[in-house]
From TrEMBL:
GO terms for molecular function: methyltransferase activity. It is a single-pass type II membrane protein. This is Methyltransferase. GO terms for cellular component: endosome; Golgi membrane; trans-Golgi network. GO terms for biological process: methylation. The keyword Glycoprotein applies.
């Protein structure tokens, strides 16, 4: 091991197995089980070049009793015998290495996302244009055709307490278009998760990710979004095509669950400023609903209205008996989100104020959040000590990666940590000045640490790696997986996870997999069968350690 790749005196098993409920079998316990040799995986048909298994399951969607509430835009995953991925999703003809950040904010290759529907529908609104072999993003939107910067300046002037990059650090942009709102907030030190369904404008999330902007496919329909309560300091909707008042406001109640105590909801829409009778009726319904949620309308100017969520439950508790919508039952868990139906009730805020009193950015990145205490896990030391040990471990480890593997020379823009824990990997990436954003994935099989991740000012989502992830193919530059396979091996097939990694990784993208020696041989075998270039390395703990590091690079395979 080189000195560049050494870390301090930590027990990696202690840190990387943080809260792991699935016991990891050692090589001695598990032995070398005979395995069927993995055959080389073939390319999928060209028609599957943008295949998203859980969103393109036509057979299951056709069985739905109703689609009027957007059910067809939600997850409907195939089982392994009916449509599960068993091949390598191909790139489109002529695929090019993506334009690097920050240039990609303003232009991407047409051949990588060869769809002109948005140009035809939204070109006149300054969203997107096609210039020769590229798509160009002027920075406008339906309600901000003069550019996102001017629009953001207007919001800042309307409400001085918003303080982008300090008090507002994490935001959600609903129905994001090509994500220019999020793209231009990056320079103000705000991370915005841009979300939209795969609907008639189905490639908007694909454009966002190709630009290097955080984004996920997600729909306000019948289930909770896969983010925790009090996740976002601001939620933004500019002509986002969501009927917030339908079904007694159940969709705005979901916004209320996601919004941090004291957070802001920004609505730019025709009912705010137009005087037609139908639109004024919509405004009246929105006023009545937000009043019932105890939101304070703090600014209304031109086509923008801004509300603020209360800091505690006192307003809710002083409403008249029988007021609607009701408060959720005390035993409702607002952080339970995996395949959880929406609830027509107001999520209660913690009486102790947890989640609502986070420090300003960047202090919050390293400050142990209050909600650390709410995580259900077995630990023999205090959670704060655990948090600090985890942060120090990852900071030194990523420092080693930067020095030994020259991470700053890689084009690492879109990064995913597939088993994120407290978000220590993402925090270390930020601390070491790597110009990336990280999506922290918290597996459903372990403790739900998402509230801690968001309280730190980072992005995250809950997911089950036995199923497909809600993103387009070829959208990530780096996938990081620490102890993922050993923790999920009793639940998921290794090749299922690896094929999904191949689907979402860009050609030329990299995967860093840290796991136990007992399972690493099988992982490498699957990586080789997928055509990845892979190299096994010792971890910083040395050649006799129980873990190895598999460094992989995905190659561009042609049909």
């Amino acid at each position: 091991m080189t000195e560049d790749f050494e870390v301090g005196e930590f027990d990696p098993e202690f840190v990387e197995n943080l809260g792991n409920d699935n016991e990891t079998a050692s090589e001695e316990e598990d032995g070398e089980k005979p395995r069927v040799k993995v055959k080389k995986f073939q390319l999928c048909p060209v028609s599957m070049k943008e295949y998203i298994p859980c969103l393109d399951n036509v057979e299951e969607i056709q069985k739905l009793n109703s689609t009027e509430k957007g059910e067809k835009y939600e997850r409907h995953c195939p089982d392994s015998d009916h449509g599960g991925l068993d091949c390598l999703v191909p790139a489109p003809a002529g695929y090019k290495v993506p334009i690097p950040w920050p240039k990609s904010r303003d232009e991407v290759w047409f051949v990588n996302v060869p769809h002109t529907r948005l140009v035809e529908d939204k070109g006149g609104q300054n969203w997107i244009t096609k210039v020769k072999d590229k798509f160009v993003f002027p920075g406008g939107g339906t309600q901000f055709i003069h550019g996102a910067d001017e629009y953001l300046n207007q919001i800042s002037k309307m409400v001085s307490s918003i303080q982008f990059g300090r008090r507002v650090r994490v935001a959600l942009d609903v129905g994001c278009g090509v994500a220019s709102f999020g793209a231009f907030l990056i320079q103000r030190k705000v991370v915005v998760l841009s979300v939209a369904p795969k609907d008639v404008h189905e490639n908007q999330i694909q454009f966002a990710l190709e630009r290097g902007v955080p984004a996920m496919i997600a729909a306000f329909a019948t289930r909770r979004l896969l983010y925790p309560s009090q996740a976002f300091d601001m939620i933004h909707c500019s002509r986002c095509r969501v009927n917030w008042t339908r079904d007694d406001g159940i969709l705005l109640l979901e916004v209320n669950r996601l919004l941090r105590a004291g957070g802001y909801f920004v609505w730019a829409a025709q009912p705010v400023y137009k005087h037609e009778e139908a639109l004024q009726q919509q405004w009246k319904e929105m006023e009545d609903l937000t009043n019932s949620l105890c939101w304070d309308l703090i600014a209304k100017e031109g086509y923008i209205a801004i509300w603020r969520k209360p800091l505690n439950n006192s307003c809710y508790e002083t409403r008249e008996i029988g007021a609607t919508p009701p408060l959720c039952e005390p035993d409702d868990d607002p952080d339970k989100v995996w395949y959880t139906e929406l609830k027509a009730c107001i999520s209660r805020l913690p009486e102790n104020g947890f989640g609502g009193n986070v420090p300003t950015w960047p202090t919050r990145l390293h400050n142990p959040p209050d909600r650390l205490q709410t995580i259900q896990m077995d630990a023999y030391m205090s959670r704060k000590e655990l948090f600090k040990a985890d942060a120090k471990y990852w900071n030194e480890l990523i420092g080693g990666y930067v020095r030994a593997f020259h991470w700053k020379k890689y084009r690492l823009r879109n990064v995913m940590d597939m088993r994120a824990g407290y978000g220590g990997f993402a925090a270390a990436v930020s601390d070491h000045g790597i110009e990336s954003w990280v999506l922290n994935v918290v597996p459903v099989s372990g403790p739900n640490t998402l509230p801690v991740i968001y309280d730190r000012g980072l992005l995250g989502v809950q997911h089950d790696w036995c199923e497909s992830f809600d993103t387009y193919p070829r959208t990530y530059d780096l996938l990081h997986a620490a102890e993922l396979f050993s923790s999920e091996r009793k639940r998921c097939n290794i090749s299922t996870i690896m094929l999904e990694m191949d689907r979402i990784l860009r050609p030329g993208g990299r995967a860093f997999i840290r796991d136990t020696l007992a399972i690493m041989g099988e992982i490498k075998e699957v990586a080789d069968a997928m055509g990845w270039q892979s190299t096994m390395r010792d971890t910083p703990e040395g050649p006799h350690a129980s873990r190895r590091l598999l460094m992989c690079e995905k190659r561009l395979l042609r049909a």
